[in-house]
Records
---
Amino acid sequence: MHNLTLNTLFVGKPVIHLPTCHSTNTYARNLAAKERVVEGTVILTSEQTAGRGQMGNRWESEPYQNMTLSIVLCPTFLKISEQFHLNIAISLGIYNFLNQYLDDGLKIKWPNDILYNHYKLGGILIENVIKGQYIEHAIIGIGLNINQGGFQTPKASSLKLLTGQHYSLEELIPKLLKSIEETYLRLRQYQVNDLKNEYLGCLFRWDKKYTFKSDVLFEGKIVGIDEYGRLLVEGETQEVKAYNFKEIAFIY
Amino acid sequence: MKAKEIRDLIDFISKSGLAEVNIESDDFKISIKRNTPVNVTEAPATLVAAPTAVTTPVATQENSVAPAPTTEVPASNGNNNAVDESKLIAVKSPMIGTFYRSSSPETPPFVNIGDTVEAGKTVCIIEAMKLFNEIESDVSGTIVKVLVDNATPVEYDQPLFLVEPN
């Protein structure tokens, strides 16, 4: 993984490559606590031994097969209350990258899982360091299943399993970084409405009636997200309710 | 020894923090042992279920056993009575979200009552829509109170911790 040819402006400059690492997000966080980290710094590992998902969940990834990396960004132009825009830009950047290889079975499951049909291809773990009213750093952890040949859970898949091809991570990583940089730069220009509309267009279970579970099972239709990123779902009596993460589950 | 002298002696020892005192002279022998309660206090409600979180009740115990065991009810909130409440500074939530005292259920809380924190030290995480925000203390001092239960919702500007500044 030493031959990355980057055509980005700042994402991946520099790339810190660690042959093995507990968690690239933890490494990035510790680094940022110790010294000034340049915006766009990428921490990349071939073998992540204690990858993290949200709140103590683990992210399992076979060594050398997949992308496990973290990007340090400094979205100081966003208010804390606007941070869901960052999630939109990153999710969309990853979506646009994968869309070069996959058809429209590719979806973003709100708020930020990457699915192909019902299979999980990747996850995002965004950890912000807040100072006062600002986001000092945003550490964007990305795990994408690329060449892994099988999974313990039937709900996961990889690009190779879906397309039948083996991919060079050295070629794919610069493309991913470029794609994320593009949506992030659009966010910096504050194209938040366009980004949000594109994000909604990629959402899993968008704009049709499906079964959801809140306190009870119900038929609902996703009609949007509010300013905080809460999912707006129209229920059986046409009323629209806003749901926090963990207040609503997709049934599939 | 007169009864009053014995009372005074017991009083003195109870304030000293000594667990046991034996005094012997020609005409008397006295042995005073502090009856340290086994389950001194319940864990504060704010305590997370992490096994390593036992440091909080220990700190509580130190504060509450200092008075004579028979004369005072142990303070259950872990608050040092000597603290001047008007000097305390609240660390407030900069956002709406869910408050977490540690980065995962298996890891210890970022801070406990009695801990000294520097400005810039992470004191909690607030999650909103799966974005995790590390909140730093904006003052240096000692944590005297945790105001919110782990994994519960918080509002914008809601006080989370009380800090006695240095």
---
Amino acid sequence: MINLLERLRSGEILVSDGAMGTMLFERGLKSGDCPEAMNLSNIDVLEDIARLYLDAGADLIQTNTFGGSPLKLASYSLSGAAPLINRNAVLAVKRAVSGRAYVSGSCGPCGKILKPYGDTDPEAVYESFEIQMQAFAESGCDVICIETMMDLNEMLLALKAAKEKAPGIPVMTTMTFEATPKGFYTIMGVTIEKAARALEEAGADVTGSNCGNGIENMIRIAREYRKHTALPLIIQSNAGLPLIEKGELVYPESPEFMAEKAKELVDAGVSIIGGCCGTGPAHIRAIRNSISTTGIR
Amino acid sequence: MELLEQISENLQNGFDEKVAALTKDAVEKQIHPKEILQNGLIAGMNVVSKKFKNHDIFLPDVLLAARAMNSAMEVLKPLLIKEGIPIRGKVVIGSVKDDLHDIGKNLVAILLKGAGFEVIDLGNDVPAEKFISTAMEENAHVIGMSALLTTTMPVMKKVVDLAKDEGLYGRVRIIVGGAPVSKEYALEIGADAYSYDGANAVETVESFFPVNS
């Protein structure tokens, strides 16, 4: 497969996949269970989900390893299984896509607050990410996506672990920002400018944002990133903030709406567009079609 | 008065050792513990809450201020108990059964402690019965519940129903929060209040207590 970064440099716009959680719940995950435990017991499900997103037109397929760092798995007493959990997830996606899409190793926050604000040692967080990154490297991930980070220090530790343990594998770094009347900030107070500069300097290959609250905010976030970095940008938006309708959780943004707005993301200079919470294969297919008509920038 | 202002300022800056030392000073100077709590610590924390709400400061600053508050409370708490001065209020808090997400709940616990409430944190995956039995044993004033998954939200209704069965309803106020929870849902299940974020949770709990208690 052609090197991902070369394709981005040539101006190509790629599509990544949508949410994982909903897909897992529809396929037997019980609430309160560890989503990554499926990687030990239900590997077929992982392949099914990867195929659905591949068929929808995704160029990058994420692994079910968002909570796959040992520190995060500790709340389910699964730390020791971290290497296997991450390895199985990568291999499952690899089998499903067999070279037709990039396998993107997902790495989310460790779930702890780092010293001095919380009680967790940065060294312990770094070591935990090292184990996950090593598993990504050994199982042959094409790219690593560190996502939903709110603490820049934690993000930098994960990035450093990736560069150390998975050298040569491109790393994408996305943070989650809230819209405030004073601009975009993570809950830990990180601005887009600060994130963009620090991550570029620390060697991120692609940067951007995921989750958030709706794709319209993501267009503003992408424009702000573009001002502060020359790196290729990735945006994986959720389908808006969930509403409750008749006791069910409903995400307001339709595939058509997000696909239309995705064109504005391209105009803002985004290279990879995908989904987060509330998006499924229908969203990805619509985005794919909308991007394809836009073509290469 | 100047000493209490120093306590407030240092608390706002998150200097925990300084705040503990100044609190000891204040106690030695015979300033009434309740005065230290109200006009030093809570006064400082109120400024922090307000700035947080206005996005002038962020979570890290709040966490440091709350830690400073806790360090001072270790000095003050025995004195307040000895004098029979009630703590601001007692809150039992937890994430509901089968819901293992706890960052939001932890933040609310930190902010409530910071605002001078006694917080009994039951952790994650807390069954409905446990909220009720703890509230009864501890004579709590408030039960706070968090859910991050729609599938776990029914536990909140169960707690409200159990509170009715046990005659706690109306005496113990019930507040709910979490990403999928809404004001409408809180109304529907009969909870007393819904909060959309940590700072709002503190304001809501404060509103349960008369000002000059």
---
Amino acid sequence: MTPAEIRDEILDILSKVAPDEDLSDLEDAKNFREQLELDSMDFLDIVLELKRRHRVIIPEEDYGNLASMASTVSYLEPKMRDIVKS
Amino acid sequence: MEEFDTIIIGAGMSGLAAGIRLAYFDQKVCILERHYTIGGLNSFYRLNHRDYDVGLHAVTNFVGKGAKKGPIAKLLRQLRFSWDDFQLRPQLGSAVVFPDVELNFSNDIELLKAEIASKFPTQRDRFDNLLKQLVDYDDLNDEMFALSTRKILQEIFTEPLLIEMLLCPLMWYGNARENDMDFGQFCIMFRSIYLEGFGRPFKGVRLILKHLVRKYRGLGGQLKLRSGVAKIITDGGQAVGVELDNGTQLKAKRILSSAGAVETMRLCEDTSESKVVQAGQLTFIESISVLDCQPKEIGFDKTIVFYNDSPTFYWSRPATELCDARTGVICSPNNYLYDATEGELQDGIIRLTTIADYDRWNALEEETYRREKLRWYDLSVASAVRFMPDFRRRVIETDVFTPKTIRRFTYHDNGAVYGAPKKQLDGRTHLKNLFLCGTDQGFVGIVGAIVSGISIANMHCLRTELS
């Protein structure tokens, strides 16, 4: 997956985890928490969805990398580079 | 032998919710239910061509469509439902009625504030203080949770009657402890009833159950009815599986049990290790009356009325009789704001809940049991009509369910409706892969039970799989 495809995938996951949020003007550099009503259960869901969809395992100590869209994509890029977008 | 990632004991709200979470995240899950139907405490039955609900008077924590905060928004997200699936309609309005004083409340806290200001003018600012002191569930620690609510309220208010009146609905809808209430539970119930409020789907509890079970099965979850667990098989401090009443054995990496704390301990092979946990004592009878008209036609338009016939509210098991009818809850499922397309419920229904004693009901011979059901229907209705229009001439059909019925649906000791007074908030047991969910873990009510199933599944079955 390219970084752009990973970004789309995260957006899709967010739309499942937080269906009532408007994601259209999400700013990549800003923290998710500042823009969306996400709690720790929602963050757990993002991690679980990545495992469910792509077998990507994110250890708890790495959760800090999921703060914003930009940091999430750059963290996931090496882990998801070889995944073919279906 | 068939092997599962997780076996869940009990197909009530908490078990189904946990099952959905686990099946969604690809676990191989099996829910085992002893009864022939799902729902546990919140179930339904059909009698003489009419549908009846057990449990559900109201779904608490009501929020409108699009709300992002609160337990209902959270559970819908976690279970991947949309708000429209549950079709919750708001209450018309409820009341706490004591001799000479009535406090009305609705899904807007301003009504209760205004009622207190007019009926207890000296307590108005004190009520505002209480609102400021309420603690969010997420911020509750164990020590705060167990504080005495009565003591805290006595420090805030100077009118004992107002304390009793505020406590009455909150204890009725979710207090497993007799006489007093854990402060944590008080904060949870206060928010769920006074700050958020009541709702109900037009089709009642069966709509919610239908969605839960359909989603669970659609995700590949297995559900076995008439499959009581005879024992939990253990090996060196771990659960390894279960044996059903018919002798079948199933293996599991872990087990979630909504059977109750004491009941689950009893199922474990190594019961000598079991901690002494007390089962709850509070249980009810419910007298159901079908009317030949809508309740509002006889002048009753309240959704729920909590009544008490003296200035002191007694919340304890009946001391000498089968029931204690001094206090009760009157609920009419007709009195919700249903959509125009839904219309009105076909029958006018008045449900009436009265505190009861399990042991005395359970000890009755069949013939006496039937007679006492009729006698207590009359006594509880006679008590209730002191606080609402007398509907007795309009009744065309009645039914009563008792603590024995509740025991049959839930299998909980004593037919305890809100579980054990002491909750196991982290869900842990003496076995490292056996966890509790449902009423004995923490939250009660439909919303509470679903949240319990979700959080225990997250904490002990999903997060652990990530490392």
---
Amino acid sequence: MDDFIAARSQMAMSLGFHIVFACIGMVMPFFMATAHFIYLRTGNLLYRGLTQAWSKGVAILFATGAVSGTMLSFELGLLWPTFMEHAGPIFGMPFSLEGTAFFIEAIALGFFLYGWDRLGRWFHWTTGLIVGISGLASGILVVAANAWMNSPSGFDIVDGHYTNIDPIKAMFNDAWLSQALHMTLAAFVATGFAVSGIHAWMILKRKNVEFHTAAFRISALTACLAAVLQPISGDLSAKDVAERQPAKLAAMEAHFETQSHAPLLLGGVPDEDAETVRYAIKLPGMLSFLAHGDITAPVTGLKDLPREDRPPVAITHYAFQTMIVIGMLLVALALVYVTALAKRRAHRNWLLRLFVVATPLGYIALEAGWVVTEVGRQPWIIHGVMRTADAVTPMPGIVYSFYLFTAVFVSLSVTVAFLLYRQIKMVGKRYDVTDPDYQKDPI
Amino acid sequence: MIYVVIVYLWASICLYLLLGGADFGAGIVELAVPRRYKPRVRVIMAHAIGPIWEANHMWLIIAIVILFVGFPQVYTTMSIFVHIPLVAMLLGIIARGTAFVFRNYDAVDDGWQRIYARVFMWSSMVTPFFLGIIAASTVSRTINPQAGDFVTAYIGSWLTWFGISIGLFTTAICGYLAATYAIGTVDASLRQLLIRIAKRFIYLVVVSGAFVFVAAIYSDIPLFEWIFGGLIGQLAIALATVSLAITFIAFRRKKVTALRMLAGFQVVMILLAATYQHYPELVLFSDGKGLSLLEHAGDVKTINALGWALLSGSVFILPFLFYLMRVFGNRQK
């Protein structure tokens, strides 16, 4: 492994790790606020227990997200100093605002976690809501910075110098809205299905059924709503990409020949050397339609681009297919759930089993989508402006840093999973007032 | 507006040293107390820093964002040539933050707690040590962008006796801050112990401070001139020394709030003395050149936007933060 690949792998791993915790931090506070609201309105202690159980999980996950986020703010420079030297002043605006949002989130979380019986009830509830709102704002701002890398704006290059810098224009680049929308919905889909899957599993195991059913309802409904909305935002994103980054779209679809009536591929094994795709099912005209809203519209193929400007096709294509397939499956599950809900058959075992199967799917799709946007942007770190290979640190030995960080992330993931498992196991004893083993939380 | 940004940069570094430092100190103090007191100290520290530890570490993020937006050359130069201690510090931050939360929120109380506790204590000690090394490397004139070989460019840039001495000094300061802060949160039985520990940390601060001067001479750093060459430096050190004498009176009279204020004041004075003389230069290179906050700042428009973002951010953050500290600040149990 050479240092450049090591640097890219380390960055991908760090972001891939952080994105999970960041998304949980964006979504879980809203679940907590909902449960907390029900408790404050009805006085039902079950919901108080649920809010506290969730908030313990959030404390663990938020801290992991906060430290991995801190690390990322350094890693950008440690791995990509040339990029940061030029890009920092241009796309730094969302980061400086994100600093504020993240700060408020941390303060509000302190209030929320330690505020039981110490703050006014509704003030306490509001701090929980602020955690969610500022988490959402942080996420959107960071995505706006990433969108700038896909759609650079707010500066000119004159004789190799970056001039006429306009940080506000850079922040509101053409890609920020569609990316932020897609990412936010993805966070709700992924977290919603992950949480509801875990609670569905506990219901199936007949453990603290009432408690887990309450949790399942809140998370599953949110997940399903977001899952149904996500294809609309996906369509907006695809049209955006088609316009601004035709190379990325072509790699997503493994589309080599520029043509009108361009076909949409289902599956298929791209061969980058031979510039063909084998074993794919082709839906004629559908790619033209999805990209430009017209089945006759021509779609640029990879062959029109010099080889050194093409993204890796196979990874982008597989990741895109994974995301789409999972997205469709989750829409189907959402529709089934809503139908069952209407017929008052929502908590039948077969349906709960489907939710258990869907537990990891949202996050797999989310990671796949992240791979599509990041790998699909290659070989550029700033689309059309700076190549990733020109941005990497001159320091040799990044391979060892990659090994080190791999070890850290693997052990952290294992520990977090272990802690959450223990939290879930202790629900009856610590959080569910209807459980015979319940003991009031000493904290 | 550039001056607003510089003030924010200095203030966030200062607040990180004070609040983040006290936070690191919580682990260092836990390491320093005798074994039989550890469980009680652990509970006290967990209550004292639990609600605010994440906010305390935000100051580092604010400082780093100011650097990479406003002074990208400073940020990238440090990232390239001080890469190794930065990674060490990051690993410390990760280990510490996660171990603290894992220990506090684990649903089951068993042998795992001890592992988390050990990770928390040792990383609390290692992280400020590397922070000190990183800070020292900016003024050591050891960063050499022209260096051809790995050792000169990436190790010699930070591994000096001066760096090590600053690392130890920073660690001692963190312990001192946490011990004095904690005095106000405990009852009489533990207070005596914490006062003893706080005093020990003061001796450590003084001894490691003396080591800093010796190491500076050894590493050819005109530290003495920097600090005592100007009125502000002399004044800052004089005030810090006087306040140290007052601190011992406060110990005897058990004036909790005064102790906290004094400890904070001393640290601010030390930071002031250490930074003002080479202002506006922030990073000094081995060839005599440097990176200046005024000359190497980003574009005017960027600095303006950053300044406004910081100012408007403060309107939201500061009142909220003060209230948080007030609600959870003096928790006696």
